[in-house]
Amino acid sequence: MTGLTTAPGRPPGTPADPGHRPRKQGRASRPRRPIPTEFRTAVSPHQLNSRRGRTVYWTVLVTVVTGFTAIFVFPLYWMVTGAMKSTEDLLRIPPSLLPPRFTLEAYLEAWELLDLGLLLGNTALYAGGAWLFTLAIDVTAAYALSKLRPVLGRLVLGLMLATLMIPPMVIMLPAYLTVKDLPILGWDLLNTPWAIWLPAAANGFNIFLLKRFFDSIPGELLEAAEIDGASPGRILWSIVMPVSRPILGVVSILTVVNVWRDFVWPLLVLPDNEKMSVSIGIASLSAQMPQNVLIASLVIASIPTIVVFFVFQRQIMAGLTAGGLKG
């Protein structure tokens, strides 16, 4: 008579399973080991949660930000308020931080004595033309080197970058002779805006910046446009240019600011008084003006570039961090 062996805890009549093993406890029931937490900041969150930590953190932060802001803003403040002082107040030792009275007389006198309206108009013409020629020449050159890949393209790019190693003063004389007698055509470009526009557009650094950005544009995007029958010019205008606004903004601002503040080159190629830029006009008459009027003219000449920066500062930051496209 065969009997059935009953395992403990099983109902009677259930045969025992020799291969049966008790189940292991699930992962949820195991006690988890504490995960070590690493903080890669100067101040850990635990310290910031304390009252003393928050006090020290905000004190240091406000002190550093205020100090650096004062260092950069103080020269501008000194110019604006210095134009409101008399010559005696400017030469006073120790100097006073606030003018005796707030007045705009020096600004009005500077506008009339230096004919700043004419000088600013000339400079705006030179900067605007240089900006247009830079976009027309540098963008197409960078696009050709990046996407069209012509024969000897790397050699051409290397020669362009080699020009950045040459000091500007070394090439100033050859550039002046070129502008005075344009090769092949034989034109004399002195006292014309072309003497400013063409050298400003021949900028290897701008071409390098634009090419690096164009290299990050996916090739599939351009190939899809080619399949649809778009020409290289159409692709550049309709696809590449819209997605390149950040770097175009950076190149534009660099070009405008460089032309606006340039002194030596306009002094050589624009000897006519009626065609001077604002920097040359102020320097040529600085010895004949009171010091507060001179400072007022410098403030007026700086306003356009400051306005350009505040209007396009978002494009500047986006262009400096641009290097790829996210899908």
TrEMBL record:
GO cellular component term of the entry, any: plasma membrane
Main localisation: membrane
CDD domains registered for this protein in UniProt: TM_PBP2
InterPro entries: MetI-like (IPR000515), MetI-like_sf (IPR035906)
Subcellular location: Cell membrane
Residues annotated as domain ABC transmembrane type-1: 120-312
Bilayer disposition of the protein: Multi-pass membrane protein
GO annotation, biological process: transmembrane transport
Keywords, in A-Z order: Cell membrane, Membrane, Transmembrane, Transmembrane helix, Transport
Name assigned to this protein: ABC transporter permease
Species whose genome carries this gene: Planomonospora sphaerica
